[in-house]
UniProtKB/TrEMBL annotation:
Belongs to the aldehyde dehydrogenase family. Residues 14-474 form the Aldehyde dehydrogenase domain. It comes from the Bacteria. It comes from Streptomyces ambofaciens. InterPro entries: Ald_DH/histidinol_DH, Ald_DH_C, Ald_DH_CS_GLU, Ald_DH_N, Aldehyde_DH_dom, Aldehyde_DH_Superfamily. Keywords: Oxidoreductase. This is NAD-dependent succinate-semialdehyde dehydrogenase. The active site is at E251.
């Protein structure tokens, strides 16, 4: 960790903020400052934008194979240094090392996937219906991009945005989350080592996001925004894109339903629940938020889930045997505490957890609640913590209606042994993704994204690179 960059990357040079400002990076397991990094302001952002604009033409003309080879080398470097990156992530974000190692592999796979997609960008040629003209279709990079990443998967979300942008021939300014800037800076260093030309990727770390991002979006030279974060912030950014018609893709909040029918294999359902709820300590937009369990199996499901949750070991992510690390910060833990307290006050019953431990760090225990009232605050917001809230239902139509009764539509989970029901309910859910008898949907080869207020566009899969490409159509007379 000691060799990790702490300065801004602008035009291929690591540099301090123009005004010399720095900001702290905290270890959520202790609350102590572990590093200080450059804190960019508007002038730094404009310099980064200048660098991306200057590099755009030459990078767009770079052979697709050459772009892909750089991403492929970055994939190999990440895997070679997996342990270093895992420990870096754990130190600034808190997740256990086992999960951090998994994220390094996940991030690296985005670089490999898009290294292969770079050479598959194609167009088309054909005779138009009138028979008098032909059309030539080609794909062009959309242009310089602003990439804004969250703190919960700092390495993977960086790779998921950088990979397709570079593969498509776009230059970029990356703004990592202020809680986890080190992973983004280290990722940029890897791409430098892999041979990325100066100015193609620039990184501005900042605690002044509004001051830094708004001028870029309103200035007219950034042509693409890719954002992962809350729906509230997403709306503000979309408004800033309007004047200059900046193309935007957004992966926003979720309120994932986890539906267990009476014919579900409960062992499979509980395994799925542990993955969908406890991955990343529940700090994931894909986390199961509302557990709808058929009344006839609800008590048994809750008992099994509580037993599994109670067995998890809570502690610093660097400690051997730890399953659950700290939440990201004091505000994140306070939110979870408030949601649980509200549910209990409304009549929910605690089966396990629900009590904040004493001592340093932002820890919260794995928690299972039953008899949760539908009007509890935690049913209408992302919990973003290790809390499973169980509600019961009686029939399929009822549960589908309740599952869809939310402004969000990122992912839903369905557990049933009936094929017809599985397909029927999956198709009725108003979500961009469905986990069918599985608690994990994320994969670099699959299109990740939601509907309604969960976002616009898709990341990953073949659709991921489309977000960074435009069509050009050339009409010509037929000979």
């Amino acid at each position: 960790m000691t060799g990790t960059p702490t300065r801004l990357l602008i035009g291929g040079t690591w540099t301090d903020a123009v005004d010399g400002a720095t900001m702290p990076v905290d270890d959520p397991a202790t609350g102590e400052i572990i590093r200080r990094v450059a804190d960019a302001g508007p002038k730094d952002a404009r310099l980064a934008e200048d660098a991306a604009v200057r590099a755009q033409r030459e990078w767009a003309r770079t052979a697709p194979r050459a772009r892909g080879e750089i991403l492929r080398r970055a994939h190999e470097i990440l895997l070679d240094r997996a342990e270093v990156f895992a420990r870096l992530m754990t130190s600034e974000m808190g997740k256990p090392l086992a999960e951090a190692r998994g994220e390094v592999a996940y991030a690296a796979e985005f670089f490999r996937w898009f290294s292969e997609e770079a050479v598959r960008i194609d167009g088309g040629h054909g005779i138009l219906p009138d028979g008098r003209h032909r059309m030539l279709l080609s794909r062009r990079p959309v242009g310089p991009c602003l990439l804004i990443t969250p703190w919960n998967f700092p390495l993977a979300m960086g790779a998921r945005k950088i990979g397709p942008a570079l593969a498509a021939g776009c230059t970029a300014v990356l703004k990592p989350a202020p809680q986890t800037p080190l992973s983004g800076l280290a990722l940029a260093e890897v791409l430098q080592e892999a041979g990325l030309p100066d100015g193609v990727l620039n990184v501005v770390t900042t605690s002044r996001a509004g001051e830094v991002c708004e001028p870029l979006l309103r200035g007219g030279r950034i042509r693409k925004l890719s954002f992962t974060g809350s729906t509230q912030v997403g709306r503000l950014l979309l408004a800033q894109c309007v004047d200059t018609v900046v193309r935007a893709s957004m992966e926003l909040g979720g309120n994932a339903p986890f539906i267990v029918f009476d014919d579900a294999d409960l062992d499979v359902a509980v395994d799925g629940a542990m993955t969908a709820k406890m991955r990343n300590m529940g700090e994931a937009c894909t986390a199961a938020n509302r557990f709808f369990v058929h009344r006839s199996v609800a008590e048994e499901f809750a008992r099994r889930l509580a037993r599994r949750m109670a067995a998890l070991v809570v502690g610093p992510g660097t400690r051997d045997g730890v399953d659950v690390g700290p939440l990201i910060d004091a505000a994140g833990r306070a939110k979870v505490e408030g949601l649980v307290s509200d549910a209990v006050e409304r009549g929910a019953r605690l089966l396990v957890g629900g009590r904040t431990p004493e001592g340093p760090g932002w820890f919260y225990p794995p928690t299972v609640l039953t008899d949760v009232r539908p009007d509890s605050r935690l049913t209408g917001t992302e919990i973003f913590g290790p809390v499973a809230a169980i509600l019961t239902f009686d029939d399929e139509d009822e549960v589908v209606r309740r599952a869809n009764d939310t402004p969000w539509g990122l992912v839903g989970y369905v557990f049933t042994e009936g094929l017809a029901r599985a397909l029927r309910v999956s198709e009725r859910l108003e979500t961009g993704m469905v986990g069918l008898n599985t608690g994990l949907v994320s994969n670099p080869a699959a299109p990740f994204g939601g509907v309604k207020q969960s976002g616009l566009g898709r990341e990953g899969g073949k659709a991921g690179i489309e977000e960074f490409l435009e069509y050009q159509y050339v009409a010509m007379p037929s000979p």
